[in-house]
Amino acid sequence: MSLTRDQMAWRMAQDIADGAYVNLGIGLPELVGNHLPPGREIVLHSENGILGMGPEPAATERDYDLINAGKKPVTLLPGGAYFHHADSFAIVRGGRLDLCVLGAFQVAAIGDLANWSTGAPDAIPAVGGAMDIAVGARRCVVLTEHTTRDGKPKLVERCTYPLTAPGVVRRVYTDLAVVDIDAGGFVVVELAPGIGFEAVAARTGGPIRRGDGCGIIALPG
Amino acid sequence: MIDKRVDSLAAAMRPIRDGHTIHVSGFGESGCPTELLHALIEHGARGLTIVYNNAGNGHLGLAALLEAGRVRKMICSYPRSSHSVVFDRLYRAGAIELEVVPQGTLAERIRAAGAGIGPFYCRTSVGTPLADGKECRRFGDHDYVLEHPLRADVALIKAETADRWGNLTFRKAARNFAPIMAMAADHTIAQARRLVELGAIDPEQVVTPGAFVDAVVRVANPISEYEALLAAKRP
Question: What is the mean pLDDT of residues A143-158?
């Protein structure tokens, strides 16, 4: 069975260490915030000038001076802070962000990330903070479905879409597997329950191998 | 005596000329000086270049300025949102120029301009189409792209509290681009929800010191673009 979006986010969240400073990209990565393991203090960064971002408030408590990068209302946890945009990206580029979790159109076997443009001629180009965060975070991982809606691989040998950053992605969490990227390409380190390595390989567009000790993703409950 | 208070939004707009480059604070609706933008429409300046993270929502504020045909070029990181209908139409009609800049590079280009720094090297956008045509150099283990400071003739920013010297505080994440834009313009105009006596802002809490601000004007109850969007959707 392929994982649901919440299961994907839950699996990713298990790898975030206590004390980590983390930026979650817009869309699917935002769900990771709902699954942070209890007992760990994890500080979420939002590039519009927030550290210590908390969950969405109740409808009556919404404050549009306190939104996340996706422009949705959020809250601030005790210990949180506000700062201006240049400081926010100094946190990103200055190496203070331990981890970023981004979405992707394509990830290449050499770690290239494409997540801002499909290069379609009529599309309005819009990059936001993706390039800065992909390059600046100490570790960059991707959370995305293994294939596009029409079944094309998102894990590819070389990106055909315009790059966000070359050679930055270390791990990809998909609905089928957890996949590391090393010098030899994609390495499956965990499989979703009931999913075989061959099924993952068949849906992957670049060099892929089964990692030593490849296990099954252990889901809660 | 220093008194940067201006009585009206219209009076605050007087230094603005056709063809000016204007920094506009805000991230989505958070921190956007909507009333200053409406005063700019009334003022009538044309051929403007606007630096703003996004490209306006609905038909208020920046979107209204775009709709009035006053903007020649937008410099922004993310000109796409579910409500940016006006910019979409102008862009697809070829009626407006667009420079897309990564958000952190946009912030640092503005900060550099405000701090009197010249061009600088940045790792962001190396190996991507946004580095095309720019000088790339390797320092140590990394490749960098040369980026240029981004200064404006005028900055329009939204603050929470101001005094007559132009000291400013901000509210929550509405701070975003305002402090750096205030630094990087020849003439900075702030709208503030509250104007207070000199000394009433705790000096430890001043975010933007008055040296970076030229004019403050009180807007006690700023429009919420979000609520306006909701209202427009109601049957």
Answer: 97
- Return the pLDDT at B2: 98
Query: Which of B25, B128, B229 is the best residue to mutate to test the A interface, defined by the most A CB atoms within 10 Å of its own CB?
Result: B128
Looking at this predicted complex, what is its ipTM? 0.96
Domain contains A221: no
In a domain, A137, yes or no: yes
B202 pLDDT band, cuts 50/70/90, is very high
Residues of B in contact with A117 (CB under 8 A): 129
The pLDDT tens digits of the residues spanning A99-115 come to 999 999 999 999 999 99
Nearest to B100 among A47, A76, A127 (CB): A127
Looking at residue B233, what is its pLDDT? 73
Domain residues for the domain of A159 are 5-216
Q: What is the DSSP string of chain A?
A: -PPPHHHHHHHHHTTPPTT-EEEE-SSGGGGGGGGPPTT---EEEETTTEEEEEPPPPGGG--TTSB-TTS-B-EEEEEEEE--HHHHHHHHHTT---EEEE--SEEETT--EE-S----TTSPP--TTHHHHHHHSSSEEEE--SB-TTS-BSEESS--SPPSBSS-EEEEE-SSEEEEEETTEEEEEEE-TT--HHHHHHT-BS-EEEEEEEEE-----
For B183, list phi and psi in degrees, rounded to 5. Answer: -75, -25
Q: Of B104, B108, B172, which is closest to A82 when you measure between CB atoms?
A: B172
Q: Specify the CATH number for B9-119+150-233; select among 3.20.20.140, 3.40.50.720, 3.40.1080.10, 3.40.50.970.
A: 3.40.1080.10
Q: Residues of A near B (CB-CB distance < 8 A)?
A: 46-50, 63-67, 71, 76, 82-86, 88-89, 92-93, 117, 122, 124-133, 135-136, 162-166
Nearest CA distance, A218 vs chain B (angstrom)? 37
Residue in B30, B104, B226 closest to A89 by CB: B104
- Is the dihedral angle over the CA atoms A128, B225, B174, A19 positive or is it negative? negative
Catalytic residue, chosen from A30, A47, A145, A190, is: A47
Confidence grade of residue B235 (pLDDT, cut at 50, 70, 90): low
Q: Specify the number of domains making up chain A.
A: 1
Strands B21-24 and B152-162 come out as parallel
CB pair distance less than 8 Å for B29 and A89: no
For B127-143, the pLDDT digits (tens) are 999 999 999 999 999 99
Contact A165 B31 (CB under 8 A): no
